[in-house]
Amino acid sequence: MEDQSVEAHKAKTIVTKEEFLQINEQAAHEMSLDKELQDKALDVLVEADHHRWIHQGSWFGESLLNLPQDMFAIQDIIWRTKPEFIIEVGVAWGGGMLFYSMLLEILGGEKVIGIDIFIPDDLRKRLASHGKLSERLELIEGPSTSADTLAQVKALLGGSRKVLVILDSFHTHEHVLNELRCYAPFIEKGQYLICGDTVVERIPEQMHRTRPWGPGNNPATAVKEFLSESDRFEVDEKIDQRLLLSCHPGGYLRAVK
Ligand SMILES: C[S@@+](CC[C@H](N)C(=O)[O-])C[C@H]1O[C@@H](n2cnc3c(N)ncnc32)[C@H](O)[C@@H]1O
Question: What is the Å distance from ligand 1's center to 18 Cα?
Fold first, then answer.
């Protein structure tokens, strides 16, 4: 008499990876149309924000202000597109840079460029303390859209356009639109431009009452205007459909030209 688990395993009907992925894709599409579930997921994000949920993650001990769902999505993009450079605009506590550095280490990329207006010595020291992963990190201190910062980025890229850009700094419409315009030219066809915190458009205004952004003035509105003036990028809706919980809905942009 065979073990029950072995029998159950033999009865499996999905046997190829392609089949498995196809079924998942259809399920994700249906999930994206399930308004009740989408509303519940947004409620979780809103309620959990009162408990600093998004601030609680870390990578190799360094804090990371992003949801695991979004980090999985970014990991998948990096795996598929194999960028040589990853630019993170808005470094905060540095965990994101380490995460990206680890993937470039494994996949054979060049550098992770982190840009922030405020890079305290403490952060520099911590980011320099991670052995091999630290060697890939380049920090630029300055406003993301200043001519000086952009010139430093250009010099570090050395002509490469196999670049992934993740925008996650100051979330007003005007600032993000400017960033989208400034960083898009660094990216070649097939690579991604991720615009962070588009979820601000969907959450209650009072959540951000101490901040200059909110519904109507945020990364999502900036993406909308950017896409209306450029046909080089389109939203990768398949990513959105899978995530359910995400801070960047409609913010995963793929360069199609
Ligand atoms: C949301 S945090 C970044 C989180 C980080 N990407 C992560 O995943 O952990 C935003 C960061 O943007 C920086 N910032 C704000 N305005 C900026 C600007 N104009 N240029 C560059 N960085 C800016 C802030 O200092 C802050 O560290």
Answer: 39
